[in-house]
Amino acid sequence: MSFSPITGAAGTTIHTSVDGLRHGQVDMPTFDGTIPAYFAVPADSEQAPVVLVIQEIFGLHEHIRDVCRRFAHQGYMAVGVELYQRQGDASQYSDMGALIKDIVSRVPDEQVLADLDAAVKWAASQGADTARLGVTGFCWGGRLTWMYAAHNPRCKAGVAWYGKLTTGHGPLQRRNPIDVAAELHAPVLGLYGGRDTSIPVEDVRRMEAALAQGNAAAQSSEIVVYPDSGHAFYADYRPSYHAQDAQDAWDKALAWFGRYLG
């Protein structure tokens, strides 16, 4: 299987204006040095709430940076981190199997969670309000959204877009969302496609059952399944994009963060 991480259905790719924003690439301090990250925040904001934006399997590319700008226009400081930095450059791959084998399978969850914690610390150093902390992620990052909501007690809300629930991408991912469902620190909104062949609806139903048996944050979580969409229905640069469902899901994501981070 091959993919093109920067092209998709003609005429659909969204480019969000930077007017009124502070934004840019930074070398962000983390536990073993520095790591590339992108941020966007309203130019005149003080103490903006924070949304960590976790990349797709393709890395921190332009679509994820654009999503950061979309959140910034809603009043958030959005931070995306290049979470594969130590393992390789995803942009150099055109074959999904090779990408997973060479890079993705070699990225341990512990490394990702530590880098996300570093992003929270960096956001605080920039004047953001990390007491109002949310996390969102897409595809590979959707799975990590669930994991981070179970990892950081300071997290107040998560929105997971079509992230795997019962498996990871290699042996270094020892636990999965189904394993941590009962111990979330923050309620998570899961957004899934009913035609997603990589995440069976049966997995979604298992996750819903696990959440119902969990703690208060787990029981406050919700999963929405869009029956006409497949995987990556929000990725406007890809043929999988489903404009109507993407807009509805975005509205739901904003309402979720507004409820818990407002």
Task: Spell out the CATH superfamily.
Answer: Alpha/Beta hydrolase fold, catalytic domain
- Tell me the series of helices and strands, N- to C-terminal: EEEHEHHEHEHEHHEH
Question: What's the architecture in CATH terms?
Answer: 3-Layer(aba) Sandwich
CATH C-level category: Alpha Beta
**Overall tally of structural domains:** 1
- Which range best describes the helical content: under 10%, 10-25%, 25-40%, 40-55%, 55-70% or over 70%? 25-40%
Low-confidence parts lasting 5 or more residues at pLDDT below 50?
1-11
Major sheet description: 8 strands, mixed
Backbone shape: globular
Overall mean pLDDT stands at 94
Tally the helices: what do you get?
Answer: 8
Radius of gyration: 17 Å
> Strand share of the residues?
15-25%
State the secondary-structure class: alpha/beta
CATH topology (fold) name: Rossmann fold
Number of strands: 8
How many angstroms separate the termini?
42 Å
Helices and strands in order:
Layout (H helix, E strand, L loop, with lengths): L20 E10 L2 E10 L6 E6 L7 H11 L4 E5 L14 H7 L6 H17 L3 E10 L1 H12 L3 E7 L15 H4 L7 E6 L7 H12 L3 H5 L1 E5 L16 H19 L1
Parallel strand pairs: 3-4, 3-5, 5-6, 6-7, 7-8
Antiparallel strand pairs: 1-2, 2-4
Helix pairs in contact: 3-4
